[in-house]
Amino acid sequence: MTFPPQDPTLPFGPEAIRAAAAVILDGGIVAVPTETVYGLAADATASEAVARIYAAKGRPSFNPLIVHVPDLTAALALADFDDDALALAHAFWPGPLTLVRPLKAGAGIASLVTAGLDTVAIRVPRHRAMQALLAETGRPLAAPSANASGGISPTRSPHVRASLGPGVPILDDGATEAGLESTIVFGRTILRPGPVTAAMLADVLGEVEQGPKAPAIVTAPGQLASHYAPRKALRLNVTEAAADEWLIGFGAVRGQDNLSESGDPVEAAARLFDALHRADASDRARLAVAPIPDGGIGEAINDRLRRAATR
Ligand code: TXA
Ligand code: MG
Q1: Backbone dihedral region of 263: left (phi > 0), alpha (psi from -120 to 50 degrees) or beta?
Q2: pLDDT tier at 217 (50, 70, 90 boundaries)?
Q3: Is 139 a known ligand-binding residue?
């Protein structure tokens, strides 16, 4: 089986995985779901393949990519792990945690992946499709979120198609589970909040530092303040919307859409980007979002919302 040229989308299954692996081993790119968001994957050891990711996303090339590997053993072949990093890997892999670690000499990762840095961001994903693609290709896979640079991260295959256009092959396995990009940790500092919360990290490390809150000065590559922007203006912490605003509600704040009527932040995280996509496509000129409490994964939701509101 190969990807049909008209609409190159295949549902998850053994044949789709073989087709996707063939594209990757041929130096191409494939959109593939992870438990966080859909990623745009290429062989991390092949610089031309990685260049295709940057080209498809229109991404500034100083923004380094996350490398996905099947397990900790594969991660140890690419980077140095200290005791903290090992503890985090044992606690949260496979899962939505990315560790920034010193790159090993001779790891074979294309320098375009790390944007020339001497560190590499690594993650062992849990999703069956990404795991199957890693097994079938036998390669570390570089994969940023599968959206045009600066756009909203995709949590369903139609988001990918709308953002990246008709040419990109998509392995479709429905909606992603967490709905927010992985937590990124460097040492004991959270560079990007995500599904693995500060409290979960502190349980393992004893203490963690919060990175700068978005919108912030760019301290690490890719921490562009405006990074998850819808096309329309967005107002935060809104309980009463104006007539021309599409209100994304939460809990008792109802709105045109609601992230979680029961006020569950995990459900809200899973639905956030889908809701932003819907809001952007609506007939209202502006967007508004209800207040989301800051605890746990609420931290990551509010991080993405602050970025989305920065234009
Ligand atoms: O959940 C996720 O992490 C998704 C899925 C596909 O795995 N991927 C994702 O990738 O969100 P991306 O490229 O959209 O975001 C990667 C972030 C960027 O902000 C980038 O700057 C940062 O990771 N990053 C990558 N390598 C880094 C490094 N060596 N040092 C600091 N930050 C790094
Ligand atoms: Mg992204």
Answers
A1: left
A2: very low
A3: no
